[in-house]
Design a protein that fits this description.
The complex is a heterotrimer of chains A (about 70), B (about 325) and C (about 55).
Chain A (H helix, E strand, L loop, with lengths): L7 E6 L3 H10 L8 E6 L7 H9 L4 E5 L1
Parallel strand pairs in A: 1-2, 1-3
Chain B lengths: L1 H16 L5 E6 L8 E5 L8 E2 L19 E5 L1 H12 L8 E5 L8 H5 L6 E7 L2 E6 L3 E5 L6 H4 L11 E2 L14 H7 L3 H12 L7 H5 L24 H14 L9 H5 L7 H15 L27
Parallel strand pairs in B: 1-4, 4-5, 5-9
Antiparallel strand pairs in B: 1-2, 1-3, 6-7, 7-8
Helix pairs in contact in B: 8-10
Chain C lengths: L1 H7 L6 E4 L6 H18 L11
The chains are: A alpha/beta (about 70), B alpha/beta (about 325), C mainly alpha (about 55).
Chain lengths: ~70, ~325, ~55
C-alpha cells in the first residue's frame, strides 16, 4: 500500500455528521477522499469494539463523530 | 495476621450457629504450599478449615454474586472495595452480605519467592513479618516486606472500607506523593517503545483467561471474547488477538478496577496484566478524582454525565 | 479509550472524536481535512492489524 493511500474509518451519526456529510456533498464542497463512512443510527451506538475492529482490519485511523 | 484467623473462625462459627448466614466464603489451605484457595463453608465443623495469611491474594468479592441466601465473606481492603463496586453495580444487595473485614498488610509475590528455589517448595510458614520457606534442597528465611506484590506495595487502602465486623486492628495506611510511578515510566516512552513493551509483555500469554476469571469485575454473562456473532477477537495466540483481548479487557475495567492484583496472581505465565489497567486507574483519578469502590453512594464516572466532564478530546 | 491506545503505543492521532451538527457542512470539511493531514503525517498503521495470512 502506498503511503498516500490511507483509510480513515469514519463512524458518523445519522442525525449529525452524516447529515453534515450529505450537506457537504449537496453543496459541492471538496474534501479528502481518505474517509470511509459507516453510518450509525446514533453516536450512542458506538462501542470501543468497533474502533478496535476497524484498526484490526487495517484501518489507518478511526474517526467517531456525533 | 496470625491472631485474626482465630477471630475469623470464631466469628464464622457464631454466624453459622445462629443461622445468621448460610455460607461463609473464605480461604482454605491449598494442596501445595503457598496456594490458598477460596472455599465456601456451610457446616460448623468445617470452620477450622479457614485460614488467612499472606498468600490469600485472590479476591473473594468474585464469589458473592448470584447467592440466594445471606452469606458472610472474609474481605481484605481491596476485596471490600470490590464489594462496594458490586453493590453500586447492583450485583449484590448490602443486606444479603455479612462482611468480615480484615485489615491487610499486603500479600506476597509467590513467583518471586519461587524464583529463589530451583526445586519445588515443600513448606511455607509465616510469623509476623518473617517468612519461612523450605524446599528439599534449602531453607530460606525472608522478610515479608521484600516480597510483597507490586500492587500491595503501592496500596493505599489496606483497611476495609465497608464491613460489619473487623477481625483485627486497623493498620496504618500508606500515602504516596505519586501513586503511579509504574505508569509514568511507560508514559515516558515513545510510541514505538510503548508498543514493543506491550508486545513483549503479552508474548507469553496463552489465552487461558485466568485473569478474566479471577477478576471480580469481569462478570459479563458472555464475555466479548466468547461472542461469535460477530466474533470480535480471534481465539488463537495471534499477537493481534492477544493484544486486543488485553486491551479491551482492561478498558472494560475503566473506573472499576481496584488494583487488587487477582489478575496477576492468577496468571500462570506471570504477565503483569496491571500495566494495562493501571493506566486507566491513573486516568480516572486524574480526570474525575475517582478511585473505585470507596463510596457506596457515588456513581462511577463513566456511569453519569456531568457538564464538567473533560472533553478536550472532542473537536 | 484514546488514552489507553496511546499508552499501548498507538499514536494519538489515529483515533479522532468530533461533534458536528448536520448543518455544519463546512466544519465537516474542515475536520476531514485536518484528520486526513494528521493521519497522512503518521503514515499507514502497522500496529494491532491482524495478519490473516
Amino acid at each position: 500500500m502506498a503511503d498516500n493511500d490511507i483509510k480513515i474509518v469514519s463512524f458518523l451519526c445519522n442525525w449529525c455528521s452524516y447529515g453534515a456529510a450529505d450537506l457537504a456533498g449537496v453543496s459541492r464542497l471538496e474534501y479528502p477522499a481518505d474517509i470511509r463512512v459507516i453510518r450509525i443510527p446514533c453516536s450512542g451506538r458506538m462501542s470501543p469494539k468497533f474502533i478496535l475492529s476497524a484498526l484490526r482490519e487495517g484501518a489507518d485511523a478511526v474517526w467517531v463523530s456525533g | 495476621m496470625d491472631t485474626c484467623i482465630n477471630k475469623i473462625r470464631e466469628l464464622s462459627l457464631k454466624l453459622l450457629e445462629e443461622n445468621e448466614v448460610k455460607k461463609v466464603i473464605g480461604f482454605a489451605e491449598g494442596t501445595i504450599p503457598m496456594a490458598t484457595s477460596p472455599v465456601t463453608i456451610t457446616r460448623k465443623q468445617d470452620v477450622e478449615k479457614l485460614v488467612f495469611n499472606s498468600t490469600c491474594g485472590l479476591n473473594l468479592a468474585n464469589y458473592i454474586r448470584n447467592q440466594k441466601d445471606k452469606i458472610a465473606v472474609i474481605a481484605k481492603g481491596c476485596d471490600t472495595r470490590n464489594i462496594v463496586t458490586h453493590i453500586v453495580e447492583n450485583q449484590v444487595q448490602r443486606e444479603k452480605l455479612y462482611i468480615i473485614g480484615v485489615p491487610c498488610n499486603g500479600m506476597i509475590d509467590k513467583s518471586k519467592i519461587e524464583s529463589l528455589f530451583e526445586d519445588e517448595i515443600i513448606e511455607f510458614s509465616e510469623d509476623g513479618g518473617k517468612l519461612n520457606v523450605k524446599s528439599s534442597l534449602k531453607e530460606e528465611k525472608l522478610n515479608k516486606s521484600d516480597y510483597l506484590r507490586k500492587n500491595c506495595r503501592l496500596c493505599m487502602h489496606k483497611n476495609p472500607v465497608i464491613y460489619d465486623v473487623l477481625a483485627g486492628d486497623l493498620v496504618e495506611e500508606q500515602n504516596f506523593d505519586n501513586p503511579y510511578p509504574d505508569v509514568d515510566e511507560i508514559e515516558a516512552m515513545n510510541s514505538e517503545t510503548k508498543w514493543q513493551h506491550f508486545e513483549d509483555l503479552t508474548k507469553n500469554c496463552i489465552r487461558c483467561y485466568a485473569c478474566r476469571n479471577a477478576c471480580p469485575i469481569c462478570y459479563c454473562p458472555t464475555c466479548f471474547v466468547d461472542e461469535s456473532g460477530p466474533q470480535w477477537v480471534g481465539k488463537g495466540q495471534d499477537k493481534t488477538d492477544v493484544n486486543t483481548f488485553h486491551f479491551l479487557r482492561a478498558f472494560h475495567c475503566a473506573g472499576r478496577c481496584t488494583d487488587c492484583g487477582a489478575c496477576v496472581e492468577a496468571c500462570p505465565m506471570d504477565i503483569n496484566v496491571r500495566d494495562f489497567t493501571r493506566k486507566l486507574n491513573k486516568d480516572s483519578f486524574e480526570m474525575f478524582g475517582w478511585e473505585a469502590g470507596l463510596d457506596i453512594a457515588r456513581r462511577p464516572p463513566l456511569d453519569v454525565y456531568s457538564p464538567n466532564d473533560p472533553d478536550d478530546f472532542i473537536k | 479509550m484514546g488514552n489507553l491506545l496511546e499508552h499501548m503505543g498507538i499514536e494519538k492521532d489515529r483515533v479522532h472524536f468530533s461533534w458536528i451538527s448536520s448543518a455544519e457542512a463546512t466544519k465537516f470539511v474542515d475536520v476531514v481535512k485536518e484528520i486526513s493531514k494528521k493521519v497522512r503525517a503518521l503514515g499507514p498503521n502497522k500496529k494491532l492489524v491482524k495478519d490473516y495470512n
